[in-house]
Every structure is written in C-alpha cells, then in structure tokens.
C-alpha cells in the first residue's frame, strides 16, 4: 500500500515523501482512514510503530481541509459583502470572540484550538511536536508543545499567538488552562498518548480533570502499549464506539536483532561494560540501568574509563535531559545510560546496540528495550548482562524470544 491510496492531501503527501517514507506502517494503514472518518480509536501500539504519524497525519488533514473551506468562505464574503452581512455563508470552525462577543481580526487569520494531544513526558511532547512540524510544514497550521520543568513564558507567548494543535503534558496544561491561556471549548480531536505510562506516572486525576473540561462531542484517539484492566476501564469512560487497532512489532523487530547474553558476576559488570563499549566506538549504544542512581553511577565509571556518556532519568533537570538527548541523537555522544521510564518512548534513529546492564523487572520490557535497535531492517544488536540472581528471567526471555540466543560466560 502507498500513502496515495490513503487519500492524503497533496501538501501532506509532499512532506511525508520528503521524510523518505515509502509506505505507511501497519498502524498507519489501519488508523489513518478511520481517524479521517471521525471515529474513535483504541490503539494498542508502542513507540516505534509509526503511531505518531498515524494520528498526526489525519489530524493535520482534517484541520487543513477545514481551513481551506474557511478561506473559500472568506473569499466569497469578500466578493459578496451583502450576502455576508446577512450571515448566509457561515462555514469553518467557530470564530474567536472577546468578552463582549466581538470577533477578533480577519476570519482567515483566526486560530482556535481544535486538537489536543496529551502525552506523559516532555521528551515525547517535543518529539510529537517535531512530527507535526515535519508532516504539517506545507499546511500553515500552528502547533506547539507545553510541558513542566521549564518557565512558562515562551509557552504562553505561543498560546497567545493562537494555535490549531497543542501537545501537552497534563500538569502544565492544567496550570495554563487555570490561568486562562488555553481554551478547550472548540476542541474536536483529543489524543491520549501512552495511556498506560500516564497511569504509571500517577496522572490519572489530571487526565480525568482535563477530560471533564473537553467538549463531549469530540473524537478521541486512545493509545497504549499495554492493556491492563485500569486502561480498559478508563477507555470505556472516554471512548465512543471505538475501532480497536492492535499492532505488535515485537516478533519481527526481535528477529532482526542479534542477541547475546553474558553471564557475569555483579562486581565484574563494570569492566565488561567498558570492554564492550571500547569495541564499539563507532556505534551508538543505549545502556539500560534499573535505577536512576545506577544510571548516574554507570555514567561516572565510564567517564573515569575515558568513555563519554549521557545519563537520562527522571531526576535530571529538563535542560539536562534535553541536552543529553540532543547530543546523543546528533552522535556527539555515542553512549546513553537510561532507566526504562526515561527511555521509553524516545525515538532514536540508527541505534546500533542496546546493552541491558541490568535486566528489566518484567520480561516484556526486554522486548521493548531491544526493539529500539534493528529498526527498518538495520542490523541491530542487544547484549544482556546476567548475574546469578537473573537466571530465571533469562529462561523467560529465551521462551518469549523463541529462538536460540548466543550465550557467553565471563
Ligand atoms: P513513532 O512510533 O511514531 O515514534 O515512529 C517511529 C519512527 O518511525 C519515527 O522515527 C518515524 O519518523 C518513523 N516512521 C513513521 N512512519 C514511517 C513510515 N511510514 N515509513 C518509515 N518510517 C516511518
């Protein structure tokens, strides 16, 4: 299937082509037509499947088409002012009015917030914002992201200028709404991204508050990587007759990854990590640590060994996390040490190697971690350090992966 077959408008197609996408991913094939029809979605998909474009492209398309209609109506009004005065040509989204009910400015330049995307972390908010920049660059739509941990002034500036699309983390969104900078009244599409992670991070009350303030007539797109009971319960409350879409990248991704398990005693892990990194100076490596403290420690040990690395986890300041991620993405720093929570959802292209310095708590996380390498057919590699306490988990990994994994004793 091609993007043309999904009836995507020309300016968006052009932008997608420029991104170098040849064909829509499975979730895009399934979701784009359904979202375009205005239906609700319950999507079970994780980052890496192309889910951002699956909701961003049809949102951009709908808003762009509305804007085209609005422009056509404004042009008609300009050509036929008498008819316009009788109010016979109302079209397009509601117009922004001030407290006295007067319209602001010319209709064609008005922007009212139509789409809201709620996401758990600043990194994801920025990443989604970037996707809207990429796919929407020929549509003239205005979008921005707001998130906590930074001063709000520049975010307020963008809101004041007027936006069509807003990407937000829950706390900052509620703050800005409370101060009167965000208007929920005209929202027609609401996206809840990474719902399971939102609940994990304790955002449930904030999410409920946001939803209680949105128009009830709206389209809701709900995405979660996993589907525990509380996620299903929440979905029942907020979705209307949803189309369920499920994509499981795990098997194919994992197949493409060259996996090894190293049996190593705990005190020897550091030395092994340094050796393995020194053998891979030309590759980007993501090292997983179980704890934030552990991530900092690993980073320190590497520095002493002359290997520059960036650590990202929840305790780092917003600026530090963004800098670390930017350095890693640009290849200035080849090694990143992260916890699962901090790394999940971060999209890093051409990641060469994943090293599980610590094993995850649940076996599914292993698949999510190593699924970050070996994308798009590239040769990926995953090394897992396994000490005495981890043997049970290794058996589970072996069973889940379903193919022999190379094992080495150190
Ligand atoms: P996501 O799951 O939205 O985080 O997307 C994961 C990665 O896939 C991003 O780097 C996207 O740029 C990329 N991507 C999304 N859609 C496509 C596509 N149709 N073809 C190739 N790459 C894509």
What is the secondary structure topology, with strand pairs?
Blueprint: H1 10-18, H2 26-36, E1 41-44, H3 51-79, H4 81-85, E2 115-118, H5 122-135, E3 143-146, H6 153-161, E4 165-168, H7 170-178, E5 189-192, H8 195-200, H9 204-213, E6 219-224, H10 229-238, E7 243-246, H11 250-255, E8 257-263, H12 269-278, E9 285-288, H13 292-304, E10 309-312, H14 318-329, E11 335-338, H15 340-343, E12 353-356, H16 363-370, E13 380-386, H17 391-401, E14 406-409
This protein binds adenosine monophosphate.
Adenosine monophosphate (AMP) is lined by residues 21, 24-25, 28, 47-53, 347, 349.
- CA-atom Rg in angstroms: 24 Å
Can you give the mean pLDDT? 87
Structural class: alpha/beta
| Poorly predicted ranges | 95-108
Which sequence of strands runs across the widest sheet? 3-4-2-5-6-1-7
CATH topology of the largest domain: Rossmann fold
Features:
2 domains; Rossmann fold; elongated; 16% strand
Describe the protein in words:
This protein is α/β, with parallel strands linked by helices and 410 residues long. It has two domains: 3-246, 3-Layer(aba) Sandwich (Rossmann fold), CATH 3.40.50.300; 251-409, P-loop containing nucleotide triphosphate hydrolases (Rossmann fold), CATH 3.40.50. The protein has helices at 10-18, 26-36, 51-79, 81-85, 122-135, 153-161, 170-178, 195-200, 204-213, 229-238, 250-255, 269-278, 292-304, 318-329, 340-343, 363-370, 391-401, and strands at 41-44, 115-118, 143-146, 165-168, 189-192, 219-224, 243-246, 257-263, 285-288, 309-312, 335-338, 353-356, 380-386, 406-409. It has a seven-stranded parallel beta sheet with strand order 3-4-2-5-6-1-7, sandwiched between helices. Strands 10-11-9-12-13-8-14 form a seven-stranded parallel beta sheet, with helices on both faces. It is elongated and about 85 Å long. Residues 95-108 have low confidence and may be disordered. It binds adenosine monophosphate. Adenosine monophosphate (AMP) binds at residues 21, 24-25, 28, 47-53, 347, 349.
């Amino acid at each position: 299937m091609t993007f043309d077959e999904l009836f995507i408008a020309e300016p968006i197609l052009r932008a997608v082509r420029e991104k170098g996408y040849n064909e829509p991913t499975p979730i895009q094939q399934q979701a784009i037509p359904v979202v375009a029809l205005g239906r609700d979605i319950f999507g079970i998909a994780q980052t890496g499947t192309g889910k951002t474009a699956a909701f961003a492209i049809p949102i951009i398309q709908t808003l762009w088409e509305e804007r085209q209609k609005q422009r056509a109506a404004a042009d008609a009004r300009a050509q036929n002012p008498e008819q316009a005065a009788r109010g016979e040509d109302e079209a397009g989204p509601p117009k922004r009015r001030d407290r006295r009910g007067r319209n602001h400015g010319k209709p064609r330049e008005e922007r009212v917030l139509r789409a809201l995307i709620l996401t758990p972390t600043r990194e994801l908010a920025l990443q989604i914002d970037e996707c809207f920049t990429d796919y929407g660059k020929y549509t003239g739509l205005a979008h921005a992201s707001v998130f906590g941990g930074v001063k709000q002034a520049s975010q307020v500036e963008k809101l004041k200028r007027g936006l069509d699309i807003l990407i937000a983390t829950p706390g900052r969104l509620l703050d800005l709404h409370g101060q009167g900078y965000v208007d929920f009244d005209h929202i027609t599409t609401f996206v809840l991204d990474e719902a399971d992670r939102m609940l994990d991070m304790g955002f449930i009350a904030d999410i409920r508050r946001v939803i209680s303030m949105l128009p009830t007539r709206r389209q809701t797109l709900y995405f979660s990587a996993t589907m525990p009971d509380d996620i299903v319960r929440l979905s029942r409350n907020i979705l209307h007759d949803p189309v369920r879409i499920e994509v499981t990248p795990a098997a194919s991704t994992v197949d493409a990854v060259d996996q090894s398990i190293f049996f190593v005693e705990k005190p020897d892990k550091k030395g092994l990590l340094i050796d393995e990194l020194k053998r891979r100076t030309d590759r980007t490596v993501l090292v997983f640590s179980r704890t934030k403290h552990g991530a900092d420690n690993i980073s320190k040990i590497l520095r002493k060994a002359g290997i520059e690395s960036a650590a990202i986890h929840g305790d780092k300041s917003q600026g530090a996390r963004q800098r670390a991620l930017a350095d890693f993405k640009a290849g200035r720093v080849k090694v990143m040490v992260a916890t699962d929570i901090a790394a999940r959802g971060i999209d890093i292209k051409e990641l060469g190697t994943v090293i599980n310095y610590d094993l995850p708590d649940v076996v599914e996380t292993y698949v999510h971690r190593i699924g970050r390498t070996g994308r798009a057919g590239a040769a990926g590699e995953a090394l897992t350090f396994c000490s005495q306490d981890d043997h049970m988990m290794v058996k589970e990994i072996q069973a889940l992966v379903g193919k022999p994994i190379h094992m080495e004793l150190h």
